[in-house]
Specification:
The protein is mainly alpha-helical. The protein has a domain of 133 residues. It has eight helices and five strands. A three-stranded mixed β-sheet has the order 3-5-4, with helices on both faces. The chain has a two-stranded antiparallel ribbon with strand order 1-2. Helix 5 packs antiparallel against helix 6.
Length: 262
């Protein structure tokens, strides 16, 4: 057996081992998770602390009370978490129309989001979506897939050393990995978080129909300058809205008391 063939065989064996680490997401989608929950929580906490040093934190009492009211209404429904003690919410002063949640229960909301999320229910749509990323371990999944990709590229690069087409082949492989493996999983995670987040915010007493209004606002705010869905980690606005409308029809009627966050 040649050295190159041995390397290719090692690649296959490595991938087989990694794929054996599969588990299922809360919606039943298969995931590869290589890191423990405690490792991801530590990484999330470290990243959050660094971000708090770099970004301007908003200390407006009314703004913080409003955002934390919405966030807490959702996280309080989740109960104790296995890998961290409590959720932390920080409001950042920025025009960014964005929010995020990190492993370890770290939630960041940029004040710019309030220009698009016009009411508590629309804000709950975004925060529920970001919390869903944590609950579904999407950070772990992304990091794990990145590790798998790096291993495959390194082994393939070694196997092709001396090949006159090495640079061309690697460029093509990199493109194939980006748009054939990594990007679709990004869209799958986003769509999954849309559905999970919708359920979370509805269970917390927010109006799920406002999720559609939120993404309509997002579409207007973007001015139509959205990348083609094929080359984006996010579903298109129209796809997102259609998926949400279908999920809203499937939501059970709820007697949960409506939230009041102002």
């Amino acid at each position: 057996m040649t050295f190159k063939l041995s390397l290719l065989l090692a690649t296959v064996v490595s991938y087989s081992f990694l794929v054996s680490s599969c588990s299922s997401s809360p919606t039943g989608r298969q995931q590869v998770l290589l890191f423990s929950g405690s490792e991801m929580s530590e990484l999330g906490a470290q990243s959050f602390e660094e971000l708090k040093k770099q970004e301007k934190i908003n200390h407006n009492k009314k703004t913080n009370a409003y955002i934390k009211c919405v966030s807490n209404a959702i996280t309080n429904r989740l109960g104790p978490q296995r890998d961290f003690d409590k959720w932390e919410v920080v409001v950042f002063e920025s025009n960014n129309v964005n929010a995020f949640a990190l492993p370890g229960g770290k939630i960041g909301v940029y004040t710019g989001l309030l220009k698009v999320a016009k009411n508590q229910d629309q804000l709950a749509t975004v925060i529920g979506h970001e919390i869903a990323h944590v609950i579904a371990e999407h950070g772990n999944e992304r990091l794990s897939r990145s590790q798998i990709t790096n291993i495959g590229l390194e082994l393939s690069n070694l196997a092709m050393q001396g090949n006159e087409y090495q640079s061309i082949t690697m460029a093509g492989l990199g493109l194939g990995v980006k748009y054939g493996v990594m990007m679709p999983y990004g869209r799958a995670q986003e769509s999954e978080s849309d559905i999970m987040g919708l359920r979370l915010m509805a269970e917390a007493g927010f109006d799920p129909k406002q999720s559609v209004a939120l993404w309509e606002n997002m579409a207007k705010a973007s001015g139509g300058n959205q990348p083609a869905e094929l080359l984006s980690t996010h579903p298109s606005h129209s796809t997102r809205i259609n998926d949400l409308l279908q999920e809203i029809k499937r939501l059970p009627s709820s007697n949960v008391k409506r939230q009041r966050c102002q």
